[in-house]
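User: Predict the structure for this protein chain, please.
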Amino acid sequence: MFFGQVSGLKKDLGLEEVLELLASEIFSRFFAKQYDIYCHNKGAHYKFIPTRQTCPMSNIVDYRLPNSAAPEYTLKITNNSAGEKFFFCFQNQTSGLPNSSYPLAWFAAPAAKDTSIYFQWNETYDFVWAQTGSLQPGVIFRSGQVTPAQLNTQNQITFTRSPAGAYHFQDQTNTNADSLLIKMDGTIPLNNAAVGIGMSSRAIQAVQAQPNINAPYSPSKPPEYQVSFGLSQILEGQVLNVTDFQAIIPLRFPPNQYGAIATLQENNTWHVEYEPVVLAE
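Assistant: Here is the predicted structure, written as structure tokens:
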């Protein structure tokens, strides 16, 4: 039986459909919390706002966002290994990239033994550039500009350099669907800057900028998330040589699951679980 209040809920959505998204795990720890629930087949968000007045259930408020609004993902990494590790998440698709494109440490943070760290993001894309010098593993890509993009509109941009030497994007427009294209004009010098794409305002892939060259990207659907760790410091934006890391685990979110818990075990192997929502403790 459902003890709660439903306001503004569209009849065609079906109460059972919404309740199906509220896993029993959520109900066990929902007081004084707020959750955003995204319904794929309806293209809508719902804000789940528990209150003590509705104990033991909740209010459910209809909270529609544009169909393009992306759900928020959460990754919890727990370090149950023997000591401190330097964890990072990256995207390393094997096709649909410019030649000599490098994956970057998208998120990165250290974690001591028996502690957890959290990463959160939306699947929204960006154009990025950085003044890196020669692009190679170990270099840190620190974005000088982050310009929002979409896969089907505003998905082409030009990278240029002013007479004074200031890099910038310009002339954002449309190109082929399901792709992102960076055009580099004749003002770009060799081995001085890099361009690429980002997700949720953080760089994920980069390639050395060159004059009069295009950098086409066709991002994987769904994105190819991967998690690993190092024994020495890994920084966000660091250019990666993925062959340097052995314990790499892919993240493959099931439908309507937006939380992942990746646990590094005592023997340095991974265990991954997926949930509708993962909460910071």
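The chain is about 5% helix and 40% strand.
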